[in-house]
User: Fold these one by one.
Assistant:
Number 1:
Amino acid sequence: MEIDLLFFINLFLDTLSYWWVIVPSIFLGLIVGAIPGFSAANTIIILLPFTLIMEVEVGLIFMIALYSSSRMGAGIPAILVNIPGTAGAAATPLDGYPMTKSGRGQQALAISFVSSTLGGLLTTVLAIAAMPILAKVGFYMHSVEMVVVMLFGISLIASIAAKDTLKGLIAGFFGLMIGSIGADHVYATPRGTFGFLEFYDGVPLIPALVGLFAVSEALLVIEGESVLVKKKQIEEDHSSWNETIIGMKIAFKHWWHITWNSLIGLVVGVIPGAGASIASFVAYQQSRTYSKTPELYGTGHPPGLIAPESANNGVTSGTLIPLLVLGIPGGATAAIMMVVLQYQGVNTGPRLFLDNPTLGYGVFMAMFVTYLFMLLTIMPLSRYMSRVTLISTVYMSPLIISFTLIGSYVPRTYMFDMYLAFAFGIIGYIARKTGYHVAAILIGVILGPLLEQYMLRALKMSDGDVMVLFRSDLANVLWIVLVVTLSFPYIMKKFRSRKDTPPDKPEGQENVFAKD
C-alpha cells in the first residue's frame, strides 16, 4: 500500500466515523483522570474484557481516546483544588492553583485545555513524520543519560529554593530521604521500612501525591469559608465566557512555549520507563530557567501552567512509538494495548507498518482526531468547571479527603495506603504552615528513587567506576546543557543588575542644577 497524502486523508475521514466511540471515551477519560488514584491504565484493565471482544480498530480507538483525555483530566483538579489527578500533573498546580485562588480559575482551565490539545496535536503529527528517528532515541538513552535527565527534574528543587534557600533545600532533601525508603536496587535489602512490608516496593506515589497536595490543602482551606476570598467569589459568580476567551488568547499567544515544551514531552515519552511526571518537571524547570521573569513562577504565571500541561500531553504519542515500532511498551497503558493487540493476532514491531499500515498509522490518527474533539467538546466546560471553587469548604474539604483516600486505596488495594495518605497530609499541612514547599518534597519522592535506580545500574555495568557518567558523547552533551541551565539564571541576574545600574559620572561633571 502506498503511503502518501491521500492515504492519510482517507485514514482521517475513516477515523472520524468512529466519533461514537471517541466522544464517550473522552468524557470517561476526563472523569478517570480527575480522580486521584485512577488512571487510564487501571481503567482499561477493568474494561479489558470489553476491549478484547471489540474489533481491533474500535478497541484501539477507545483506549487511545481514554488515554489522551485522562492526561487532560488530571490537570482539572490540580488547577481548581490543588489535587493532581496523577503524578504527571504534579507540576500543574504550581501555577495553576494560584491562578484559581486569584479568581482566574476559568482562565487557567482554558489555558490548560488549549496547551494540552495543541501539545497533543503537534506531537502526534511529529510522531507520524519522524517515527523512525524517534524510535532510535530509546536505543541511545541508557542509564548514564537517564541520570542526567533525572538531574534536570531534581534541579527544580533548587529553583523552588530560590525564594528561601534553606527551607527549599530541606524540603527537597526530605523528599529524597522518603524516596529512598524500600528495598535497595542491588541487594534488595530493606531500608527505612520500619518493619512494614508495604514499604518494600518503596513509598507508593499515589498516597504521597494525594496526601501532600490534596489532604493538606483540604485541611488548610477548611480554615476559611471558600478557596476564594469574598471579592473573588463575587467575580467568579458573575463571570462570563470572556474569561475563557482570554485564557485561549493567552495560550495561543504562547504558541512557541507550547511547541518546545510538548517536544520535551515527546522525547521523554519515547524513552521506555520514563513518563509524564519526568516530562512535566523537566519542562517546568526549563521553562522557568529560560524565562525573562522567573520570579513570577509559582505565583499564577501562565507559562508555568503551559509548560507541564503541554509536556505531559506530548508524552502520550511518545510512549506509543517504542510499542508500535520496536514492540517495547513505553508505559503501563502501552503495555495493556500490546496485550490487546497480541490477543487480536496483531504483532507490533517494524513489520506492523509494512503488513498493516492502516492499523499502525491509525493509532496516531486516532490520537490526532481525539485531540481535535477534545478542543471542541471540553473547552466550553471551563466556565462551569471553575464554579467548583464557589462550594463552601464545609462540604468541599470532607469530599476531597474522602475521594482522595479512596483513590489512594485503588492502585494496590491496601488499607495501609489510606493511612499513609493521611500521614502525608499531616506532613504537607505542617510544611505549608511553616513555609516549606510541598512540591519540593514531592519531586524528591518521585524522582529520587528513579535517579538512584539508573545511577546504580550505570555503576554496576562499569564495576563502580564513576567516570562512566562522562564516557558517553550524548551524556556529555546533556551534562553541558545541565550546567548551562543551572548557571543561566545567575548569569542573567548579573547581566540585568549591571544593565540597571547607572554608569558613574566622570569627576567634575556633577549636575550643576542639583540642590545642596
Number 2:
Amino acid sequence: MLNVQIGRLPARHARYRPCHTAFVFNDRSYNWKEFDAVINRLANALLRAGLKKGDKVATVLSNSLELMTAYWAVAKTGLVIVPCSTLLQAAGLKTLLFDSDTVCVIADGAFATMLQEIRSDIPAIIDGRWILAGCKEAPPRGFRAFEDFVDQASQDEPPDAGLDGDDVYNIMYSSGTTGAPKGIVHSHYVRAQYCSLFASAWRMTPESVVLHAGAIVFNGAMLDLMPWMFLGCAYVLHPSFNPEAVIRDIERYQVTHMIMVPSQIIALMNSKEFDPARLSSLQMIQSLGAPLLLEHKKRLNAALPGRFYELYGLTEGFMTVLDRDDAVRKAGSVGVPTSFFEMKILDENGNEAPTGTVGEICGRGPILMSEYYKRPDLTAKALKDGWLHSGDAGYVDEDGYLFLVDRIKDMIISGGVNVYPKDIEEVMAAHPAINEVAVFGSPDEKWGEAPVAAVVLRSGHQASAEEIKEWTNARVGAKFQRLHDVVFMDSFPRNAAAKTLKREIKEAYVKGRGLGNV
C-alpha cells in the first residue's frame, strides 16, 4: 500500500504556512506552528507512557482542544483512536472499551466517577493511563490530570512510526440508531481519501474557513475535518450546537463551509437571529445524517441559494452527494456517487433493479471500512464481493440520481403493503404548525402495523392531534399511508451526533399504548 500517513499533515502546514490560522476553540486561536506543537506534546506524552504502534486510545470527550489534539497525536504515532460518545452510560462505555481492546483513556474530568465504577473491570488500562481533562480538583488515585500527563513532553516531532496506508487509524463505533454499536475500522489510506475526495467535492481551498458545531466523535465530522487538515485551512470548533452562536461566528470569522444534521439546519432557520445577509460568506451548507425534508430544503434554498449540499452515506464507506448546482433541479434526490465510487440498486433476489424501482442501495469505492472490529460474521454480511450493502432502500432516476426512500428496518408493513415513513413525513413537513416529525410503525391487530406520527410543534403554534391526523390523511398519496395516531413531544431523543432516535420513540409509544389501542 502507498505510504500514506495523515499524521504528517500538521507538520507540513507548520513548516509551509506556520502563521496561518489552524484551529479556533472558545475564542482561543492557534496558528499551524502552535497547533502542531500542541499535537506533538500529546503524541510524545503517549509514547513516554509506554504506548506503541497499534495500541488503542479511547476518548470520552466532548468537543475540545484535547479531543482535536488526540485525533492528530495518534495519527503521528501509529496509535489507534477510539472516539466514544459522551452520552454513554457506564455499562455501554465498559462494553466499548473491552470490545476495542483499549489500553488508555482520555476523558473529561466530569466522567471520573463513572470511570472509577468500571476501572477494576478493565485491567488492560493500567494506572496512569486513565487521563482526565479539565480537572477542577485532584484526580482520583490511578488517574492523571491531562496537563500533568503532557507536562514536560517534547514539542518536537515524535519518531517516525513506520506507517503505511494499510495501518489502522481509528475504530469508529456506529451511533447505535438502529441497533447495537459496531466498531468500524478505517485505515490511514481511507482517511487520506476523505482528505482529497471531499475537499474537491466541497470546493474547499487553503483559504476556506470551516465551522463545526456538532459533536466530532462521529464519522460525519470527518467530512470537513479531514479536508481541513489536508488543505491547512482554518477550523472553528464550537463546544456544542447553539444556532445563535453559529450565526454570530459565521459572520465574525467569515465562515465558508459548514456541515449540520437536519435538526440543526431547522433550528438555524428558526432562530430569531437568522438573516441571510449575515451568512453571506457561506459557500456550503451541507446536510447529512438523515434526509432533510423537501419543505425545509425549499426554504433554505430560497434564503441562501447556491449553497446547499446533501450527503447520503454510511460510516462503513459509501456515499453520494447532491451538489449545490443540482440542489434545486434534483431537490428530492441525495445525489450521485462521488468520484471513484460505484452504486447499484438490488432487488430482494440480489438482481439489479430497473430504473425507478425501489431496492437496497449497495456501493463500493476507496473509503470502504477494513472490517467491523473482531466481527468477521458481521463484516461478511455487510461486504459481499467488495460491495457494501447499506440496509437502506432507494431508487435511481433516468439520470442516475439516487432517491432515498427509507431504512429498510424502518419500513412499515401494513396489510401486506410496504409503507415508507419518509413519504408521510414529507407531506407532514408542510403543515404550518409542525417543526419536526418522525413516522414509525406501531403494532396493530388488524393491519399488522399502522403508521403513527410523533410531532414537535413550532414555537407559538398550536394544533390538535386529530387536526393534524385529518390534514395529513387528506394529502397522502394512498390509503395505506394514512395515520392511525399522532402524538406530541417537546423534543425528540437524539444521540450525540444529533440524529433522531426513532427506535426509542417507537419503543416508548408501543410500551405506553399496547396492541389494539391505535
